[in-house]
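P.,

For your records, the input lines for the assembly:
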Amino acid sequence: VEDDRVERRTEQRQRTTVALLKRQVRDARRQLARLRQQQRRRVAADNLADGRVGCELASDRTGAASNLEHVRAGGQRKIGEVRVQERALLRISGPRLHRLCELLRGRRVGLRDGRVDVGMRPLSPLRRQALQAYRRRMAVVRAAVARLPPVQHLVITLRDVDGWESREVCNALEISETNQGVLLHRARSRVRAELASYLSE
Amino acid sequence: MTTLPEMPCQELVEVITDHLENALVERDRRRFEAHLAECEACRDYLEQFRQTIALAGRVEPERLPVRMREELLTAFRAWRDG
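Structure tokens returned:
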């Protein structure tokens, strides 16, 4: 019986390791894809005259075609408020895009003389204040996640930070849905408590 | 139609993750929503939970070094096997 147990544990460990390795490979591929996407963006940003930026900032082919048409017709058409583009960018997703959106939030992005014109208007004091508050809240959440017990930390990282599905986490860690739910709930509760405490200060 | 038993605040807090994961059975989901309609504190709580998840989703994965991930996995294995 003991031997069986040891064997099962060994198998479990091996499966977890394999899952981890697969995940690392997947992460690396995703990162590579993100980098390529970034590079495409940079190239497009350097070469705007043909309206390629319009395509880059669109959420789908129809939007891209529409932007391209406008850019070609008007030459200086503003693509719009970042708020609108943010939705489009987030649909492409990726943490770097989050950062990009954060940088651009509250600013206008437009085309002027065939070049992208970011930040044509400075942030209003209200906007700046909101952005600072958001960054502080982010810092609180980041610190709270880092302070969690390791197991809760792992589950919340996979689910909420990395965006894994519940089933993926259960498979990779070989735990039941219930177990995963409990760990996730505890982790989120702790982070929420810290956030609420910060917000009530 | 039978009246469902009221869901107390404490229970709502305990099942909030299930609610957000759409994992509540129909009966409990109705109790959850009925309670929420009446209780402002629980609405605030739910909103804070959503905000927490949204903010956690914006923590960049790159900020977690590989070594830390390995440590977390080791700790996890010890917890699971122990």
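Two observations worth noting. Confidence is low (pLDDT under 50) at residues 46-61, 74-102, 106-121 of chain A. The longest helix of chain A spans residues 2-46.

Regards
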